[in-house]
Amino acid sequence: MNRVLLLLISPLFAFASAQLSPADSLRQLLQKDKEDTNKVMHLIQVVRHYEIAGDFENGIKYGNSALQLASRLNWKKGMAMAYGSIGNLYLGQGDYPKTLDYYLKALKIDEDLNDGIGMTKRLCNIGIVYRNLGDHEKALDYYQKALKTAEETGNKTMIATALSHMGNLYFAKGNYIRAKEYYLSSLKIKEEIGIPSELAITLNNIGNVCIALVEDSIAGPEKHDSLLRSALDHFLRALAIDSATGRKSGIAIRLGNIGSVYMLQQKYAEAEKYLFDALALARELGAISLERQFEEFISEVYQRTKRYQLSLEHYKRAMALKDSLFNESKNEEITRKEMSYEFEKKEAAAKAEQDKKDTVTRLIIYSVSAGFGLVLLLAVFIYRSYRQKQKANEIISAQKELVEEKQKDILDSIHYAKRIQQSLLPTDSYIQKNMDRLRKVK
After folding, report:
1. Do residues 77 and 86 touch, judged by C-beta distance below 8 A?
2. Among 41, 89, 92, 354, which is least packed, fewest CB within 10 Å?
3. What are all long-range contacts of 312-321, with beta carbons under 8 Å and residues at least 24 apart?
4. Threshold 0.85, pTM exceeds
């Protein structure tokens, strides 16, 4: 069975190479595309092709094209995806300052859009940067934020991704039992929803945990054979998935891991075949770190089989590659220090900006509350004034009515008295009549 699997690998390499450059259909779409969001998405797909192929320079070029178009369209979601894609390419190059810069820009947009899935991706990616820098505390903080965000959104893919990253962190810390727990939780979800590339990575990680437990003698010798069989099973499953999807970097890693298991099982012929296939692919990809590791494994195989001259040759090659990596490591150390300084400044600036926004928000709330209070007081004052005026009018009306009533009584009294007076006094005709009579008497 192993021989058949190896025979299938060579044509798959050719298939992978054809697939990793932008597909003809995708290039045709880009030529026909209008300057719209569809073109942004197609450009980002091209970036992904270049990322997988390890062609970071061309990937960044297409990523910038996607970013520029998304910016012209003012499509925030497209801008966030473009920033994230470019950040992935710089991560592949080991340029952590630029990686972090692009991830943070993407995260800011995702937060503004309240995009839980996007936020989970960026938080995980930032955690990866810190894990690579050896800052496990900050890495754990970002992974925990990512897991919480994923759980809040209920997105199983993002939950599985966050769990895998948590497992990676505990693996890096040497806590293999805890790492395996996170990997198995992630694997269960990925098997349920079916994500081939992610599934292969988690299978590979579980295999690595089994190897680590054997090498560190954490499990007893009696469990070593079982752990090695489990590791081989997980690596072979991962290889089958990567071969089907044409993921070269994954294929190289799985081949090397399978070779290392066969070496530990003392199946040296099988180990040699897998390791040489892994070495050839690592050279093709320019993956110096993998190439060095595979050279060391091959040297060990030759040493165990007493082919000392060949063992020495491969050991020397491994040391030469190690020197190259050491120089790169020194450059990375300088970059890390620069990045830590720059990122601390950015964190401080971001915190200051957020504090400023919080202050403005509080002022707005206070102002609105104060304004509402003033309006309420004014309303109460107006209502009280209205009620007082209404009462005053009622009193005046009552007083006026009383005065009018009294005035009526007085007038009625005067009229009554006048009638009495008139009834008691003689009339003018009566007086005139009597005076005429008296004059006649004289």
Report:
1. no
2. 354
3. 318/292, 318/293, 321/288, 321/291, 321/292, 321/295
4. no
